[in-house]
Amino acid sequence: MSDRVARQPATTAGSEASNHPEEQQAETRRVEVRRSRRRRSTVSAYREGDTTIVSIPARFTVRQEREWVNTMMTRLDDKEARRRPSDDELMARAQELSQRYLGGKAVPSSVRWSNQQERRWGSCSMPEAAIRISYRVRGLPEWVIDYVLLHELAHILVFDHSEAFWDLLRNYPKTQRARGFLDGLAFAEDTARTSGEHAGHESSPS
Ligand SMILES: [Zn+2]
Q1: Which of 205, 204, 180, 178 lies closest to 124, judged by CA?
Q2: How far is the CA of 191 from the centre of ligand 1 (A)?
Q3: How far is Cα 140 from Cα 134, in angstroms, rounded to an integer?
Q4: Where is the composition biased (Basic and acidic residues) (predicted)?
């Protein structure tokens, strides 16, 4: 059985009947298709927990619906995979970022995920140039992960947070946005943790 649920205006014909084998690759994941008369040709999709909500124009045929559901599932899966890179992928990404924004000058010996970071987003130990990125960063938007990687890469070149350090990050267009994102996230984490207990205040990558 397919797990998909089609929610549509009562006046349109149901499409629950479309039960094709290729849709069953979704396994236990639920897909909810919303048809909108206001939509002309755009399709959008997002996930809420285990459910993927795909919005399509009301005029789409069952076949178009199926194709678009598959397309959007693949796109969202790819996007999520990029948010959860493996250690090897993290290393590859760091090397790319170093090439692109630091002229390839920051050469890490290793880049890996770590659950030892506690209050930090990442760390870079020198002189080994070993970078560890907190698991808390896993699943965050790609541009935020990239910023955390770049921040630690820049520490290979400049140890402290001096002007020279921030100069290195100037070429990355989302530095300020990512810092704001992480500050907000740290604030939310602190708020969630509030229990009269003294909370640490180190929220920036260091
Ligand atoms: Zn730092």
Answers
A1: 205
A2: 23
A3: 11
A4: 19-34
Tokens standing for residue 93: 């990404």
- Poorest-confidence range of 14-18, 132-136, 173-177, 183-187? 14-18
Q: How far is the CA of 145 from the centre of ligand 1 (A)?
A: 14
What is the Å distance from ligand 1's center to 151 Cα? 6
> Which amino acid appears at position 3 of this protein?
D
Half-sphere exposure of 177 (CA within 13 A, CB side): 9
Q: What is the pLDDT of residue 203?
A: 46
Going from the Cα of 81 to the center of ligand 1, the distance in angstroms, rounded, reads 26
Average pLDDT estimate for 72-79: 92
Please, which residues have CB less than 5 A from ligand 1, an ion? 205-206
Among 28-37, 148-157, 168-177, the range scoring the smallest mean pLDDT is: 28-37
87-193 fold: Zincin-like (3.30.2010)
Distance in Å, CA 159 to ligand 1 centroid: 8
The answer on pLDDT for 80 being more than 80 is: yes
Q: How far is the CA of 89 from the centre of ligand 1 (A)?
A: 22
What's the half-sphere exposure (Cβ side, CA atoms, 13 Å) at 11?
4
pTM > 0.85: no
> How far is ligand 1, taken at its centre, from the CA of residue 82, in Å?
23
